[in-house]
Specification:
Number of domains: 1
Pfam family, one: Acyltransferase
Helix content: 40-55%
InterPro entries: Acyltransf_C, Plipid/glycerol_acylTrfase
Distance between the termini: 44 Å
Number of strands: 8
Strand order of the largest sheet: 4-3-5-2-6-7-1-8
Keywords: Acyltransferase, Membrane, Transferase, Transmembrane, Transmembrane helix
GO molecular function, one term: acyltransferase activity
Protein name: Phospholipid/glycerol acyltransferase domain-containing protein
Strand content: 5-15%
């Protein structure tokens, strides 16, 4: 829970230094990543789609493990796991990953779990369409077989189905991540919460207190195209420690990507593994199933934010601490240090770095306009 305390100046300075160095290294490596990925894209022109994708997934895993190095080993996030963790981590499988959504850090939660299954390179996302304009990342996510979606009539169903079919056609491994709520739950944004609750009442659905009402469309689309190649759905519930004010008893805004670099956060993740054969196939039954899953999530969040100290800040009774081995991320960090060094430590390297950044951004936007709008 949240309590007020004044930290010594040197602790605050240390946290600022960690945030600055970590953020600069992670985001500063993005242009380097695009140099590496662009080289592989050119070299793989005459290779099969599956062969290219395996190489792309490997490169993607190198970047994502770099992020986990900073979050898990530098910022020292404490990760507390609940639920079917042993089943999730014992073997690789194709997964549809559904989760509650309250923070920009939610995107990294899939990394946290996938790296423990050795599947981190296979992560794909269902993303808001506006994110395709993010410099560098927006175009790349499209190449990595992520799906951009719009709400309402602007949504291009055929284009999304074509991208999903590509995964099936070429037998490409996947963790397809989607957030059925569609937007983040922010306790300060009461208009969104009230709108969600009104939608639930209008459609005779249960009114959730700690989550937004889930929408079915994204899950419907994903299952329609990927069910035959999917092993399981991972129903993931995420909560963050120190997000309740002890004085007012009010829930606080969840920390984002930058806040998590300030050290010593606790991340709670509950996973329920649901075999794909147990997931309803008809739209009506699937809708009821999704609502029931979110009712269970809401109960877990109610427990987490309870005033009962015996259960508060836990998602279930049984929990597991599963720290990531440094050997899984340190070699990747050292690799990126060696790769970045000649780019940033010489005049010609720096010139190439900035030119590559600008060129990749402009070309990415052009290709987004041509193929993703």
């Amino acid at each position: 829970m949240m309590s007020k305390r004044i930290e010594p100046w040197y602790i605050r300075l240390q946290k600022v230094a960690v945030v600055l160095v970590s953020a600069l290294f992670m985001f500063g490596t993005a242009p380097s990543y695009f140099v590496l990925w662009g080289s592989w894209r050119i070299l793989s022109i005459f290779l099969s789609v599956r062969c290219y994708q395996l190489g792309d997934d490997f490169l993607y895993s190198l970047y994502q493990k770099l992020l986990l190095f900073f979050y898990e080993h530098v910022a020292r996030i404490e990760i507390i796991l609940y639920g079917d963790i042993e089943e999730v981590t014992k073997k690789k499988e194709n997964v549809i990953f559904i989760s509650n959504h309250q923070s920009t850090f939610d995107w990294l939660v899939a990394d946290v779990l996938a790296v423990r299954q050795d599947s981190i390179g296979h992560i794909r996302y269902i993303l808001k369409d506006v994110l395709k304009w993010v410099p560098l990342y927006g175009f790349y996510f499209c190449q990595h077989n992520c799906i951009y979606v719009k709400r309402g009539k602007k949504f291009k169903l055929e284009q999304a189905e074509k991208q999903l079919h590509k995964l099936v056609k070429h037998d490409i491994p996947f963790w397809m991540v989607l957030f059925p709520e569609g937007t983040r739950y922010n306790p300060l944004n009461q208009s969104v919460i009230e709108c969600s609750q009104e939608f639930a009442k209008k459609h005779d659905l249960p009114v959730l207190q700690h989550l937004l009402t889930p929408r079915l469309r994204g899950l419907q689309l994903t299952l329609r195209r990927l069910r035959a190649n999917t092993d399981a759905i991972y129903d993931v519930t995420v909560a963050f420690s120190n997000t309740k004010d002890l004085t007012t008893k009010q829930r606080l805004v969840a920390p984002g990507l930058v806040e998590f670099l300030k050290c010593n956060w606790k991340l709670h993740i509950h996973v329920t593994r649901i075999d794909i054969k147990d997931v309803p196939e008809t739209d009506e039954a699937l809708g009821d199933w999704l609502i029931e899953r979110y009712k269970q999530k809401d109960k877990m969040m109610e427990r987490f934010y309870s005033d009962d100290e015996a259960v508060s800040e836990t998602l279930a009774d049984a929990r597991k601490y599963c720290p990531l081995r440094l050997s899984q991320t340190l070699p990747v960090f050292l690799f990126w240090c060696l790769f970045n060094l000649p780019l940033l430590m010489t005049h010609y390297g720096r010139a190439f770095y900035w030119q590559a950044s600008l060129f990749s951004t402009i070309v990415g936007w052009i290709l987004v306009v041509l193929f993703a709008t």
